[in-house]
Amino acid sequence: MAAFDIPVDGGSLHGIEQGNGLPVVFLHAGVCDHRMWLSQFEALDENIHAIAYDRRGFGKTQSENVEFSELDDLSIVLDHFGIRAAVLVGCSMGGALAIDYALAYPDRVAGMVLVGSALTGAPDFELPEEMSPVLQAADVAREMGDPDMLNSVQAHHWLDGPLQQSGRVGGEIRQLFYDMNMIALRAPELEKEIVPPPAHDKLSSVTQPALLICGSFDSPDILEIHQVLEDELPNAVSIMIEGTAHLPNFERPDLFNPFLSQFLGSY
């Protein structure tokens, strides 16, 4: 496993890579960085060229407040390694990026693994009343400007699951979540992102093979998006990992990795 830093306008993209063969690019969630994929890297065969990088505002990636595009940054990563097309593995916001990229550059995406994926242009789903305490606590933390409180609330929401007991997931996993998310919470705001067109109404044109994975304890709106993707993507297979929340690969790699390996083995 080797670290890299790729120059981009206004900064550099930091990440890790290993192996040779089928290119697979891992795109992290909005509460994490590339380290959420370390257990997958440890489990992958050497015939997979695995790449994971921190997007702007996350991890060790550096960026000034300049105009940028997540799609362009991903293209720069692929070009840096001489990759024509890759399998994209994206969680949450990383999943949304994978879908947007497949729409913009279909020839560069061989397939997708979408984990608790977000979706640009998705409607605002009605959330159950039971989620109100978590949502209200997050609002209070933002109003107070208290990143430590917000980090704890977001750990409850995204790591434990918003309808589960706070602290359900503990130990090293929770500490790493706090570390990854705090970097993002303290990062300077980047206000000049070029946002791609919404993908919600274009899913039928995303024809690459897709493996959809979601945790049964995930946020209800993410579960709704998972269902939309299952219904609308023409070449998708859907899996629910019971007893996990928004980051099933991070929380239970022992359950997640076999599904990933089986999908990648089909190439």
Automatic annotation (TrEMBL):
Keywords: Hydrolase
Hydrolase among keywords: yes
Signal sequence interval, chain numbering: none
Domain AB hydrolase-1: 24-257
Entry superkingdom: Bacteria
GO function terms (MF aspect): hydrolase activity
Protein name: Alpha/beta hydrolase
Organism: Maritalea porphyrae
